[in-house]
Design a protein that fits this description.
Radius of gyration: 41 Å
CATH topology of the largest domain: TIM Barrel
CATH architecture of the largest domain: Alpha-Beta Barrel
Strand content: 15-25%
Number of strands: 17
Distance between the termini: 120 Å
CATH class of the largest domain: Alpha Beta
Length: 601
Amino acid sequence: MPEPRVGPSGALDGLADALEARVSEIVASVVEVATSTGDPTDVGPIAEVVRRATYALAEQLRALPPPGLEPRGPHRYSGAVPAARAGAVPLLRVTRAWLRWRDLCVDVCADEGTRLALDLGAVGRALTAARSSCDAALVGACGAFDDERRRVQDALTERQAELSFQATHDALTGLANRAAILALAQEALVRARRRRTTVAALFVDLDNFKDVNDTLGHRAGDELLRAVATRLDAPTRGAVLGRLGGDEFVVLLEDLTGPEHAFDVAARLLESFRDPFRIDGLDGRALSVTASIGIAAGERQSAEDLLRDADIAMYRAKWSGRNRAVAFEPEMQWAARTRLELEIELQSALDRGEFFLVYQPTFDLSDMRVTGVEALLRWRHPERGTVAPGEFIPQLETTGAIVSVGRWVLDEACRQGAAWHAFGHEIAISVNVSARQIESATFVDDVRAALEGSGLPAGLLTIEITETAIVRDLARSAICLESIRAIGARIAVDDFGTGYSSLAHLQCFPVDALKIDRSFVSGMLQGRESEALVHTLVQLGRALGIETLAEGIEELPQLAHLRGEKCASGQGFLFAEPLPADEIRAFFANWSGGVAALGTA
């Protein structure tokens, strides 16, 4: 250690030199004390602050004026404050460290003062400076810890407010969520009983929202939901507006004198959907959306009962044609219960052998020759008889059971087609598949297995898929359909013109046929719009070398018009309704009479 000096600038220069010379010793001793009873996870902040504080004290001693004069500069003893503010060191450790540092500095100054025979008054001033530095550092550290405590408390309060908001509000739209709606509805029912007024819940569900997600993507779907939430705000001012999840919104109305006011609000809600929505990602195109509304008004035992009844009424609105409001009636509960029972029974219908296929013939419209059949799924319920496809196929889609049922349909249709082929009927067979099947990793293998297991020539099998299912995942669909074509089967796009795809998609997929939706066929003689669309689709098919097939031909004028448009093929009740397999061969044999009857249409 170098010899301390007593410089001309002050009697305490030697003490300052001694402190600087023993910095490492002081730091080591302080760190040892500070970590002796705690977790020595990180001593870096303590060591650095002590080192800086020791040098600062040395500079302060050099700056102390003779007795009677004010100090020439501010004290520099706040090195612990940044460490405390950062929360790097617990307050107890900071206190231990500073008290130890004070004692060490006092000892160094006292020892060096005695060795240098300094004036006791000068040494006392040095010791006072060391103690004052320590006291000021501890005060600063405590202040910093208090600031940090308040900052943490403020952050905690803010976070609690955020969590409370999130617990009661929908993250996507900012509207009240299901938990909040149930609580508010329960409170409203209690108030209604006390005031003898009426409460109503309006259950608002977007029509065909799944198609938006499937074709335009979930980001566009989310943007649409936010836009709908904004659109619904104006006609529901003064009411509670919430989102239960998915595309389901709810409106709570209080203090009604009767249910009529609920219908007025529902009418305004439906009117708010009249203008199309403009959202990002549609290249400036507008998106037209409608909604179905269920209304439940009056006394209920609980909020759950009120929302349940509104939900049931909403489903009745959808079954009645969508884009309308329907009020709940007690008999609707029976229909809802029946639907649930069917869903449960549907889960084992395949194992019990309750599914069967019927076949609707298709025809070449130029000469009315039978060209094939479309296999259609039916369910023979042991108690209810034959269940309409619209009642159970959506449930198969929702539960995912359509994949296993669809595999059975492929096997059965190919087996039946091979049997007809063995009898000399070169008849093609079409099978509808869902988006769930296309997305299944086993679908291509399912098709291959059905063909190989039945012996049906691959060229006689047509896979029908809706345009909505195709554009749900363009890349996956392209790979899947190319693989189907590689097997040798044909591809038909069903219900073309009803979805959100563009004509450009036809060039991206190996499409052999377009099926014109029955709604256009039925409307082409009643309005120019459907007539023009049918004309466009037929011309498009001819330009691309794709067969066009019209669905739902039921009248001779429709047949004549389609023939005039040069539509290649068709099917409908005008020719034949779907038939069981054992009646198809007889139909093939007897159809020559039908040719004569329709040949001049």
